[in-house]
Amino acid sequence: MNDDARTFGVQAPGVAWQVHQVAGRSELVAVAAWRDGAVAGDGLRSRAAQALRCGTARPMLAVVELAPEDAAA
Questions:
Q1: What does the pLDDT look like over 1-41, one tens digit per residue?
Q2: pLDDT given at position 29
Q3: CA distances in angstroms from 14 to 1, 37, 59, 60, 70, listed in the order given
Q4: Cα separation of 14 and 34, whole Å?
Q5: CA-to-CA distance for 35 and 63, rounded, in angstroms?
Q6: Cα–chain-centroid distance for residue 51?
Q7: At 73, is the pLDDT very low, low, confident or very high (cuts 50, 70, 90)?
Q8: Which end of the chain, C or N, has fewer beta carbons within 10 A?
Q9: CB of 19 within 8 A of CB of 11?
Q10: Helix (H) or strand (E) run with residue 58 in it
Q11: C-alpha to C-alpha distance for 26 and 57, rounded to whole angstroms
């Protein structure tokens, strides 16, 4: 992970995006995760819930890269 990167969260109903942007770059990468249709947290409580369910949860991961047209080339 780059020490000069910005990381922040964007919350909306039914989704919690974690966004990462490297300093000096215009591109962003956003990641969101769900478990059994509910937003998956990134803390200890979420990890404990995963362990207690013994792998029965259905995970889903979305990764989106946002880049202006001039940055994509």
A1: 556 889 999 999 999 999 999 888 899 999 998 887 888 87
A2: 95
A3: 27, 9, 14, 13, 32
A4: 9
A5: 15
A6: 20
A7: low
A8: C
A9: no
A10: none
A11: 35
